[in-house]
């Protein structure tokens, strides 16, 4: 290609680039390069085109090739610069400065404008890369070029200012040249500023000064700049602040510098640098308070001034404020860390660390000393500076590390023997070791070296203070050095504290001592010892206001958990002043400071107690006693508060703790007596008289014990009087109190006092108390005691003269009490009560006293009630009613006024009488209210004509009158034991509650001894019918049935009324029955039944007699006659019971249940019928056990009495229906019978049922391969059954059957749990006591045979014959035949086993035992199935399985029978569809027990695996997982792996 063609191609390339056809341009260029490889323009054009086509690497290569070809040509360099500027590649930025430099060289002589542009770009690039020196040099070169070109001052100013902006950042990272160029730029910019002064110039000046302040070596230049700015801008603070801070930090704060600070403060009184400067000046002048104030305020404004913090810490150390100094040093150290690692900052850091260590040593606690050691380790070259080594030794000494301190001291002593600090250190070590003589010598040597150190004088004074006995007595040497120390260092608070000790303890000058303490506390408000002493002395000097002001000032400044001494003292002040809430708050604050101070807790408890917060006070004293178990006072206060709160038993326990430590502590003995007295009074309120007597005996014992210590204390004698008098209401037969002989004038021993003697002793003790201290209260108590003695003597039939004398004494004492305190309403009331007594009968005086009592106390229900009683006794009904009414309005809960209203209602014959008496029993227990209510309940019950009335239903049924009256009457007879009508009524109420034994006991108590009754009847002519019948009844109750029969026959001869004749014939029949003459009794009752008006009782007796004689015909006939009579309350149950018994006698089990069910449907609200239904279901219809359990629960809910027996029946039904732990997680049967045992512990049937429930639970545990829980209970439960039967009247057959059954159950339980030897021993023991027991003999044979059967050995024929004999002797026992069948089965004698099972089935059918038939059929089916599975040919055994299971299914739905049918099919045709159908029926249909389903699932899984039915297997496995059947899942894994 010719040169022309090259040019044409280049032109085409240029045109293509111009037309943005870059690819065409590349083609043209490549064409050129083929001809001329080094064509400059072609490479440039390639670079341009490639750059536009975004091919930077190709463009860069082309430009570089062009630049290499012609390095002085601009195009290539311009293209390369443009390419690099657009590229973000890292190499581009690295190469760009070189490109700019080349461009600068090329433009320098060609184009100055472009040169400047490239120069600025280069500076920007250097600035981005933080190359400050290159920025400065390049920009300087730019400025120089512009100066040469003649640029004006404004442009040059802008250029110099731009340079300051470029270099102003991170000046600390710049080298000296850069810094100098920066400062030159500032100076030139300032000089070239157009307008001076101006805001712009001022701002530039500030930046200049700020920049200079960062360069420590430019101090002179900084000072010159600041002064220059001050001259131009005299009102601007900034240069002064910078200059002052510079002088402060440099440590050159001369007088001139002080002038600057003062000038700065004139401009701004809160200027930080100015205040810091003044503070440093004050420090130099030893004006420490001013220094601290100014430095603190200055540092608040300028917190980064390291020197300021250092000087503040230095001042605080000199003022002995070490904790504050430590904080200041920490701030200074923070500032030094921010300042970098320059030599000056390192020196400052070392100074701060040393000062901090000194402050920490002054704090002197262990933690601070440890920190001091760590601080000193941070100081450079600390081990070569003696002062620092001294501080380190002192730190070790404060820590208790005497050996380390001694080692450092010895090294210092050898190296610096003339250093005073070292001798002082040696002295302190000796002082710590209590070697005061050596310490004295060392301190004296230190003072010889430097006598102006206050600390040495103080330590020497302390040495003299603690020295030997002589110096302890003579403290003048100590005083001398303390005074010298105080003169040398007026801020050493410890010195003034010891001066206070001297003036207080040695001189006795409390005023001077207080002054010293106050001075010490003012110097160091953390000195709690000085503060506390100052406050205590102020209180002693009766300057309470000053003391309170100090305490308030301290507490206001104190932070949480500090100043305990101040909070405690102010709390105690408020406590003494009666300001309890403030006291509580302050004492709580004291405890926050020291939670383990038991004194604080005691004081807080006192504060709570004073304001009535007993519970919190109790907690406080409890805490105090825990912290100091030796403190008797804390325990006493705990007991006293528990006594106040009525927690007498807890209080007694606390008092006992005190007595164990200090047996003669009278307050605790008194407290014990008071607690027992209060518990006795509480027991009397609850009519627990026996318990009250015991408490009073204990109370008297403790009071007497206290009196032996302090017989001069009046209150102890009064308390004994109170204790003796408190038993006035208790029956005399119960009061037999053992009293210590000291009270009776004897030296030792005890004496038993009766009630009269006890009351007399109480009067004597009141008299002794009055001799010691005459008080109105004691006179009143003595008067009441005499009155109680009169009441008791009157009950025992004493002479009237004795009574009159005591009544006179009582009146005299009460009048004396009234004279001493006529405003006490209690005294007036007591005087009125005594005046009312029949022996005095002064009703006018009584009325006057009651009215005076009311006038003394307006809210006085007691006096109004007594006034009402007075009016009622005088038959003023209306006035009595008004008085009682007033008492009710004043106190509706006061019992006596309601009794008064009830008595009025009874007097006037009101229908509200019973309601009123019932209300009295609801309010509280009182004998009058109890006997009144019981009387009206019994009266209402005796009237049988009102049973259907609304009044009866409300008063008796709805209000539960019978049990309520029975309860209060039981309490009544506890108190009053000689009132026969009360016992009669109680017997009547117990009869209604079906409490037969309790009723008989009550009647026995009301009648008394039958011998006396018989003699009384014999002493009369016995001509009247009532007398003869009463005589006959007394003989019957005595057990003289023959004589009773004769008496009844005599009465029969004179009786006229048909109804009376019927009653007498019935009673005569009972007497004959008791003699065993059943036929005679039958004849008499039959005669009674054919009367025109036979009684219900006679017909019931005839029916019961027929049952006893097992004469169903007689019983049926009597029942038919009974049913003709009208119904009355309670007859439904009796008729149902008799009818059911007749059906049972006839063997009609279904009829028994139907009769009970019919009665329940007719009377669903009668709990007795529900209970009877539950009983007959359990006994005669076990298949309906679920319904029987429900019936028992209903009975229990309806009535608690019938519910007790019903719980037993419920449990029996639950056992029959299989409600046990495996099938029912709640274990209902066991829980039910446990509840029954709790309610009826005396019923042997309950314990037998509990044994059955436990056996069922253990049996199921064995089936499930779990450990039985109740293995050890059988013998205990058997003992419980025997204990319940012993000494109680039961039917002989019932007793024997229950004992035999319980023995069998216990033996079975023992055998099942592997305790065969114990079972055999139990049977043998029972047979020894009674050999003629076939059932027990069989049981023993079963136990003995157990090991033989388990060994799986063939039994000899003789053994089998013996077993057969034992079973035959119990031929009516279904389990016996079943067991024999099991034995034959184990021996392979299947036919014999079948015959035994059939025999058991026959016996069960004869007995009508549903459960016996079902179990026999299932066992027979199992026997046949076992034979079938042994693959024995024949149709007999499979048909037997089908026959037995079919019969079982007829009896009830039987899951086990269904399973056995399925297993029979499985054993015959495992893979048949019928097999799957039967097994799936058991597995998937609801209602089958868990254990049956699990077995069926196991066999079904085998069937499905044999058929390889994966789909059904998956369904079955999911079912097993849902029911957690691990056995089936394991089988599935095993079968799947095969």
Structure notes:
The protein is mainly α and 1538 residues long. 77% of the residues lie in helices and 1% in strands. Mean pLDDT is 81; it is low at 1219-1225.
What is the percent of helical residues? Answer: over 70%
The major sheet is characterized as:
2 strands, antiparallel
What low-confidence regions span 5 or more consecutive residues with pLDDT below 50? 1219-1225
The total count of helices amounts to 82
User: What's the average pLDDT?
Assistant: 81
Number of strands: 2
Amount of beta strand? under 5%
The computed structural class is: mainly alpha
Distance between the termini: 92 Å
Strand order of the largest sheet: 1-2
Overall shape: it is: flat
Rg on CA atoms, Å: 58 Å
What brief labels describe this structure?
1538 residues, mainly alpha, two-stranded antiparallel ribbon, 77% helix, 1% strand, flat
Short description:
The chain has 1538 residues and is mostly helical. Helix content is 77%, strand content 1%.
Describe the protein's topology.
Elements: H1 3-18, H2 22-35, H3 40-52, H4 56-69, H5 74-86, H6 90-108, H7 112-128, H8 132-148, H9 153-167, H10 176-191, H11 199-213, H12 219-232, H13 238-250, H14 255-267, H15 272-284, H16 288-301, H17 306-318, H18 322-339, H19 343-363, H20 366-377, H21 386-399, H22 402-415, H23 420-432, H24 436-449, H25 454-465, H26 469-473, H27 476-488, H28 493-507, H29 510-523, H30 528-540, H31 544-557, H32 564-576, H33 580-593, H34 598-610, H35 614-627, H36 632-644, H37 648-661, H38 666-685, H39 689-709, H40 714-725, E1 737-740, E2 750-753, H41 755-772, H42 776-795, H43 800-820, H44 825-836, H45 843-856, H46 861-873, H47 877-890, H48 895-908, H49 913-923, H50 927-942, H51 950-958, H52 961-975, H53 980-992, H54 996-1007, H55 1010-1018, H56 1025-1038, H57 1041-1054, H58 1058-1074, H59 1078-1089, H60 1096-1108, H61 1112-1124, H62 1131-1145, H63 1149-1162, H64 1167-1180, H65 1185-1198, H66 1200-1216, H67 1228-1239, H68 1244-1263, H69 1274-1285, H70 1292-1312, H71 1316-1329, H72 1334-1350, H73 1357-1368, H74 1374-1386, H75 1390-1407, H76 1410-1429, H77 1436-1451, H78 1455-1468, ...
Helix pairs in contact: 1-2, 1-3, 2-3, 3-4, 3-5, 4-5, 5-6, 6-7, 7-8, 8-9, 8-10, 9-10, 10-11, 11-12, 11-13, 12-13, 13-14, 13-15, 14-15, 15-16, 15-17, 16-17, 17-18, 17-19, 18-19, 19-20, 19-21, 20-21, 21-22, 21-23, 22-23, 23-24, 24-25, 25-27, 27-28, 28-29, 29-30, 30-31, 30-32, 31-32, ...
